[in-house]
Each structure stands twice: as C-alpha cells, then as structure tokens.
Amino acid sequence: MISSVRQYLAGPGLGPLLVKSVVGTAGISMAGMAFTFLLGWQLARGLGAAGYGIYGVAMAVVSILGVPSQFGLPQLLTREVASANATADRARLSGVIRWSTRIAIVSSLVILLLVVGWTVCRERGVTSPLGASLAVGALLVPLVALGAMTAAVLRGLLAVVIAQVPDNLVRPAVHSLLLGVLLIAGVAMTPVTAMSAGVVGALVALLTGVALVWRRLPTGWVHVPPTEFHSQWLAAAFPMALTEGLRVVQGQAAILALGALVVMTEVGQFRVAASLMTLLAFPLSVFNLVAAPHVSTLAATGDHDRLRRMLAHVASGMTVSVLILVLPFAIAGRWLIATVFGSEFGDSNPIVLVLALGVLANAAFGVGATALNMLGHPQRVTRASVWSVAMLCLLLWPCIAILGAVGAAGAVSAAMALWSFLLWRDTKRLAGMDIGVWAWQQATQGKQAR
C-alpha cells in the first residue's frame, strides 16, 4: 500500500503533481494558520474586544488602501510567469518581473505618503489610537505589495508550496514572536504596538520571499534583455486590479460599517469571527493557490480534458474540507470561542456559523475566479465582483441595523454566494466546463470512459 502510494507520487502525471502540491501547501498553510491562530489569540487577549476593534478597523483601512499598490499584478504575474516559463521565454519572464516591480514600488510609496500625510493633518492626528495605528499600518502597503509580487513569481514557477512560506508562515510567526517578546519585556499591548510588530513581520516575510525567488529563477535571467508588453499587461491587469479591490472591499466593508454603527466591542467580536472564517476558508485558499498555475499551464498546452477533471475534483475537495472544519463550531462553538479568546467573545459563534454558509457556497461552486483569470476572462470576474459588492452594500446597513454583527455576517455570506454562482455560470458558458462540486462524478466517469 505504502509502496504503491510512493510509486504514484513519483509519477510524472498531473495527478501526482497536484496531490503533492495540495499536501505541501496544506502543510505550510496549517503551520502558518497555527501561528495566525496564536496571533489572533494574543491580540484578542491582549487588546480586549474594544482594542481589537480599533486594530481591526485600522487593518481594514490599510487593506483597502493597499489594493491600488498591487493593481492586479499578483494574478497577472502568476499567469505570465507560468506561461513564459512553460515556453522558456526568458525575455518575457524578465520583462514582466521588472515591469510589475516598478509599478508596485512607485504606487505603494505614493499611497504610503498620502496616508501618513492625511493622518498627521487631520484633527487629533496620530494622538488618537486609531490615527496612530493607521500611520504605522501604512508601512504595510509597500511591504505587502512587494511580498505579493514575490509569491506570485514563485507560483508561476510552479513552486506553489514554497510560495506560501513568506506570507503564510514567516509573517504571522514573526508577528506572534514579537508580541510574545513585548509581553515578556513588560510592554503594554496597544493597537499601535500590535501594528508595529505586524510591520516588522511583513518586512521579514518580504526579505524571505526575495531570497526564495532569486534562488529559483533561471540562471542569468537578470542579464536577458527584457521584452515588455506594457499595453497588453495593463489591459489585463486593470480588470484583475478592479476585481481584487472589490474583493478586499467585500472583505473589509462589514468591519468598517460596524465601526461606524456599533460599539468597538461588537467590532472586536466580528473580527474574531472573521478570523475564524479564515480558518474555515483555509481549504479554498490552498486549492485556489495550487490550481492557478496548473490552469494556466494546461490551457497553454491545450489539455482541456485534464483541466476539466482537475477543476471538478478541486471543488469536491474544498467542499468536504470546509464541512469538516465547520462541524466543531456547529456542535460547541460558543464554548470553544469563549474558552480560547475569552468570555466577551463567546457571542462570536453565531457570526461564525452565518459566515460559514458563504464559505460553503464558495467551495461548492468551485474555483471560478481562478479559472476565468487564468483562461483570459478577468472581465467576467470583475463583473461578478461588482454585482457581489453591490448586493453587499444594499444589504449591509439594514442588516446591521436589525441584527447587528450577525446581520453583517448574513450580508457578507449572501454576497459571497452570489459571487461564486456568477463565476460558476460564466465558466460553464465561456469555457464549457462545469466546475461545481456536483461535476465530480461526471469527471470521474469521463476519465474511466477514456
């Protein structure tokens, strides 16, 4: 049995490659998630619900402001690097890396200066906890943008597992370690100190990512005269940037709306629930990251049959994994959350369960965004994101007014389900592939028939 498994994994086919990629990525992500969970626990315990709410609002603002600095470049880089690497086009590889890095550096520095300037000039400025947290958090904009570039290049080079190390493992580990050092040193934890530790973690993660990229790029690539397709890349990056911006807005809008309508304590409870939703969505992140470069590679080589089978199996794996992770919260979630994060966070469990509905819908409809982006239809992803954010904006305020944080979770889940459905429908129409969980059996039968 064991020898058969080893023999299968040593094979050259797509199946063994996917299994190894998923298992490896899952291993790195699980280790990173352990640090992320520890980090969330440290922040919740150290800051309390109100302080965690301030930290969460500051992070939401920084996340939204960081979108223009990336301008859809990570998705474009993964696609272009994978294609250039598959065809041994070093000139194009060199060109897209140089071009995207320049844009990321210039745009992120402009955003950083604007955020710091606005924070300093406004009333109370950096003397308020939220203003000071925003000023420090602005440093994350260039660090996270460049870190996303390095991860995208690694994914394009099919180093999918290694690509997860800087952001998923190193960054939360360093952040958590620094918070522990501050605690031992007797430094009081505030939103500002917590944000400062996060900036250092992002810096260490970026340096790690640069080192990993440099080791895996083809020898002498830096000396190859670059071939740059500015207009084509800008045209492709724009809808991806818009999509990413809408995704970030969708993820952070609830926290910002809660911050404006309810007390910071309830914002902190939602923040804990949102961090636990990240745990539930863990399989989605793993499968999407693994699938992206393989979708581009299979599409470039014209192997649509294997692509269809792969996407159907990905949806099945995501759905089953999410159901397993939701089960403990459905049985004893309130006790688990109160025990781990503190009694004032026990009310987060209903929020978690409502958010889980959106995650399940996302898993069941498959990796539509990844498929459409890699197959050259990013505009359809943007269109679905526009409809999703529009629904969120329509539902968010009345739902919060009626049900508070639980209502915000309902609005987020409804918007997420609509987004996933539209992407599934467009993938079926444009690529002729049903990528939902229900297509798993059909894909298996089709393989057996051949």
Secondary structure blueprint with pairings:
Layout: H1 2-9, H2 14-65, H3 67-70, H4 73-86, H5 90-121, H6 129-137, H7 140-156, H8 160-163, H9 165-184, H10 191-216, H11 230-261, H12 264-280, H13 282-301, H14 304-341, H15 348-365, H16 368-374, H17 378-403, H18 405-431, H19 440-449
Helix pairs in contact: 2-6, 2-9, 2-10, 2-11, 2-12, 2-13, 2-14, 4-5, 4-7, 4-13, 5-6, 5-7, 6-10, 7-10, 9-10, 11-17, 11-18, 12-15, 13-14, 14-15, 14-19, 15-18, 16-17, 16-18, 17-18
- Radius of gyration, in angstroms, nearest whole number: 22 Å
Helical region count? 19
Helix content estimate? over 70%
Number of strands: 0
Structural summary, described in words:
By secondary structure, this protein is mainly alpha-helical. Helix content is 85%, strand content 0%. It is globular and about 55 Å long. The protein starts with a helix and ends with a helix. The mean pLDDT is 81.
Which descriptors would you attach to this protein?
19 helices; mainly alpha; globular; 450 residues
Question: How do you describe this structure in short?
Answer:
The chain has 450 residues and is mainly alpha-helical. It has 19 helices and no strands.
